[in-house]
Design goal:
mainly alpha; 9 helices; about 70% helix
Length: about 190
Amino acid sequence: MAAQSGGSRLSSQHIPALDGIRGIAILVVMMHHFTVYGGMASTNALDRAFRTLTLPGWVGVDLFFVLSGFLITGILYDAKEKRHYFRTFYMRRVLHIFPLYYVVLVIVFLIAPRLFTADAALQSFTGEQWWYWTYLSNVSTALSGWHEYLAFGHFWSLAVEEQFYLLWRPWRSSSWGERRSCVCLSC
């Protein structure tokens, strides 16, 4: 976001540098996953050095959350004078994320268990589906740890993002949130 010339209002203009930061975050997370979860063995000094460099790659996910919060706050700030701005904002998010998310859940929880009855991990995973249908998989992970069916381990970040979308605007609109937002921005 950049300040508009001649005014103090923030603008949601495209910032190319954020695309670069997003690209770096993607690479860092991917390298982390390839080495840590990909079973890379540290057999020589170069492998050990590479693994050491990629271990903190989880920070890329945090960077995504910070960028998302920054951009979402800017969009909401710019639109706050418009009629039904939050409803419009949230409907765009719902139409952007929900269709594919729920198609995947239908395949994983309703179709795949009938096709792959011998896959014990998948069958066990279907018992956890309530958390995914309600965007609360991050809560399930916090309470019980990672499920053995790790193919959906990344869904926790989608849950966090949807929870942010749902709670940030009402929190900012409250008198308590207005005062505390300065603290959030300064952290």
